[in-house]
Design goal:
By secondary structure, the chain is an alpha/beta fold. The protein is 30% helix and 22% strand. The longest helix has 19 residues. The relative contact order is 0.16.
Length: 400
Amino acid sequence: MKQKLTIALIGCGSFAEDFVELFKKHPNTEKVYVCDLIRERAEAFSKQFDCEIIDTFEDVLKKEDVNCILNFTRRHQHGDITIRALKAGKHVYSSVPMASSVEECKEIVELVKDTGLTYVIGETCYYYPCAMFCREAYKNGKIGKFQYGAAQYYHHIDSISYGKIKEERGMPPLFYPTHSTAMILSACDSYVKRVVCFGCKTDDEAFLPGNNEWGNEHINQYVLMELANGGTARVTEARGFSYGSPSSYISNMYGTKGSYEFSNAQHLFFEREDNTEKDIIHVTDVSDYVNPADMVKNKHLPDFKEKAANWEWQRNSPAKVQEEEYKRVPAEFEGLRNSHMASHQLLVDDFCTCAFEGKMPVLNAWFAARSNVPGLVAIESAKQGGIPLEVPDFGDAPVK
């Protein structure tokens, strides 16, 4: 008989707060515990969500009824926490990034392969409407052979969580590139073979030489990626841009048959007509299909573009392109918190379904490594003045 999930949430921060009720209410879940090194945070979660506390992560690892952990610790701790949990026989849902070194990423992949445990990387942007539209267009042959695409994560350092933590402020932007790479790589169904990266320096003291533990001087990093399918991609991770929303998006994707371009709230798709006499391009505005439903309802407002640039409708409201995925979401999620372009409920259902049924999740360890490792290698390229570097690949996920 299939075993229901008894979950321990590790790290009771503001981001984790969006997920507790979703994991509790999923029909495959038996119970959710909470755990944090800062006792007051665990107590606040315990009171808010009616969850029991487990005092330490070490206690979680020894607790036999816990078969899953949710890794919401600080970014540079993710690899260690995940590895220890897998070695203790626990399924793992981890927020991004997968890990902070190539070696840790490789070890996680090997552990998942050897143990058969479920690992899901909670990459919200995989389910962003722009990424879903581009995957759909590519899968249906409308893009043709992939040539070039660009994705980016623009989030000013003063408004991002680690920007408020002194010891983490100088972190390299490509330390977790998955808000960009997961979108463009999934859209063109490929992986990275080689990278070249450059960075932009700043007067911010946290990014000065010797002022952070990563030896990082770049507040923005820009990487050109050579892909296994013969195409190229550009990924930008920026923490110094004065920019609003959407903070993560595919800006363009070009193929031999069709192309996609996006700016603020306008999504355009271009298709080449097969005509031997003329070079004819047909343009379709697909904004109503890709934008969140609440955004579409309000597109008549005179200040629509400004509201769209300030996250007015880009949290809880699904887009039409997401409707098919939402058919699998449990009825128990109705009215619960959702965020990041309505991606949270999809991510939670992925993990709870796959861990319970023993299925291979789409956001598996192999996908996570292919999304994470290129950024880690690119950091080294930037440190060395932008030299080309090979990106190790750990293969495709096995059929399960």
